[in-house]
């Protein structure tokens, strides 16, 4: 069975077994917030001009028999959520109300949320992600989430990468005009009629012998570089990276 067939089979099984109907306790206000956030993300394509650069087809058209693990900063999450919609990625969402909100949004865009965070249920969630990734699915993680500090890489992605042997794909974002929210992650919302670049940096693996600190630093530097490349392309129309 090919990797693509395995991934489709696992995704279908996971969807049927682990996505029960939303509990009645989920408030109408939370559902409304989810609808508004879905609307905001869905409107990106019509309100802004998004260009993807770098290793843009690495997930969809890869030739390798390894999973792909997409890394991004929490503050630039909106653009990757739109650009990577429909890829059925395994993504961790916290156990808080904000996590429930994000889980509803992720499911709308055909992703598979795993509940947990660095503070609550994190190890259980990470182990579930490792299991699904090793079984054939790809994954994504905001590596400084869910509560920061901003741009401080947590060990979760390192653990998933080392246990699965997957390629990490660092994603950076640059906007010509944006609203920056006064939150810990400085969430960036592209303004209407702005130009947005999502740059997928060079994929890499983390050796099993590397320390957690070394792995976190590799991810951190790769994300800074991907964001730098996105800024370069935004200003000049070119990237330095081949």
Quick synopsis:
The chain has helices at 3-18, 28-42, 44-47, 78-83, 97-108, 122-134, 156-164, 212-236, and strands at 49-54, 68-72, 90-93, 112-115, 139-142, 167-175, 178-180, 188-190, 195-200. The chain has 242 residues and is α/β, with parallel strands linked by helices.
Describe this structure in words.
The chain has one domain (3-10, 51-236). The protein is built from eight helices and nine strands. It has helices at residues 3-18, 28-42, 44-47, 78-83, 97-108, 122-134, 156-164, 212-236, and strands at residues 49-54, 68-72, 90-93, 112-115, 139-142, 167-175, 178-180, 188-190, 195-200. The strands form two sheets. It has a seven-stranded mixed sheet with strand order 1-9-6-2-5-3-4, with helices on both faces. A two-stranded antiparallel ribbon has the order 7-8. Strand 3, helix 5 and strand 4 (112-115) form a beta-alpha-beta unit.
Furnish the topology, listing elements before pairings.
Elements: H1 3-18, H2 28-42, H3 44-47, E1 49-54, E2 68-72, H4 78-83, E3 90-93, H5 97-108, E4 112-115, H6 122-134, E5 139-142, H7 156-164, E6 167-175, E7 178-180, E8 188-190, E9 195-200, H8 212-236
Parallel strand pairs: 1-9, 2-5, 2-6, 3-4, 3-5
Antiparallel strand pairs: 6-9, 7-8
Helix pairs in contact: 2-5, 6-7
- General shape: globular
Largest sheet: 7 strands, mixed
The pLDDT mean sits at 86
| Low-pLDDT stretches | 1-6
- Integer count of domains: 1
What percent of residues are in strands? 15-25%
Order of helices and strands: HHHEEHEHEHEHEEEEH
The count of DSSP E runs of length 2 or more, i.e. the number of strands, is: 9
By DSSP (H or I, 4+ residues per run), the number of helices equals 8
Structural class: alpha/beta
Strands of the largest sheet, in order across it? 1-9-6-2-5-3-4
Distance between the termini: 33 Å
Helix content: 40-55%
């Amino acid at each position: 069975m090919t990797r693509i067939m395995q991934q489709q089979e696992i995704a279908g099984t996971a969807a049927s077994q682990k996505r029960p109907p939303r509990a009645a306790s989920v408030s109408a206000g939370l559902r409304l917030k989810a609808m508004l956030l879905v609307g905001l993300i869905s409107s990106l394509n019509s309100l802004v001009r998004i260009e993807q650069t770098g290793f843009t087809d690495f997930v969809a058209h890869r030739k390798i028999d390894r999973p792909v693990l997409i890394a991004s900063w929490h503050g630039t999450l909106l653009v990757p959520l739109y650009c990577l919609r429909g890829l059925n990625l395994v993504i961790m969402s916290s156990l808080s109300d904000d996590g429930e909100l994000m889980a509803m949004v992720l499911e709308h865009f055909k992703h598979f949320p795993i509940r947990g965070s660095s503070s609550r249920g994190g190890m259980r969630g990470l182990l579930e992600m490792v299991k699904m990734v090793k079984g054939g699915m790809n994954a994504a993680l905001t590596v400084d989430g869910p509560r920061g500090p901003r741009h401080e890489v947590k060990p979760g992605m390192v653990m998933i990468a080392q246990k699965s042997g997957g390629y990490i794909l660092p994603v950076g974002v640059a906007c010509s005009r944006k609203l920056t929210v006064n939150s810990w992650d400085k969430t960036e919302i592209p303004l209407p009629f702005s130009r947005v670049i999502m740059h997928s940096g060079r994929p890499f693996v983390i050796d099993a012998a590397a320390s957690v600190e070394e792995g976190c630093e590799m991810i951190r530097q790769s994300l800074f570089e991907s964001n730098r490349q996105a800024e370069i392309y935004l200003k000049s129309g070119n990237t330095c990276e081949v």
